[in-house]
Amino acid sequence: MNYLPVRKLTYNTKLSYEEVRIRLNEHVEAQKPLRPVGYLFRKKDHKAYEGFIKKENFQVSRIIHSRNSFIPQIKGTIEPTNQGSKIHVKMQLHELVLIFMAVWMGGTGLAFFAFLWSAIKAEVHFLVPLAPLGMMLFGYLLATIAFNFEADNSTKFFEKIWEAEIEANE
Question: Given CA atoms 144, 146, 147, 152 in this order, what sign does their dihedral have?
């Protein structure tokens, strides 16, 4: 089990390099700078993913109608083989979300050790250090559960459209 919100996969398919690109292109539209969020403003006339496909490389993310900062950013490479194609995919959090989570974890970790030191010196109640520890755990679980939910959806989606089997799950 991976404890960080990162997923690396290799899909094996009997489809040709060109057929993989065509099928991916059928489900990817150009990224829009601002997409309306919420059920009142959603449009159903869009594809499942947004991003770009250039030669053998692609970078996409799933279009959702709600806020989820932890949605995977999916980067991949299509590699032709004798039996069809291999698609190497890496799913990870957006860079700004990673920075925010690093600041969150660092801040709550620092607060934990500061309160722990105060509790050891008997300046505060011994349970006080549990508050920042709980905040750290909450941040970790929120990011990991939300990421894995969306990553599972994308993993199954690509497996289906490429008629592929997953070779490695790191």
Answer: positive
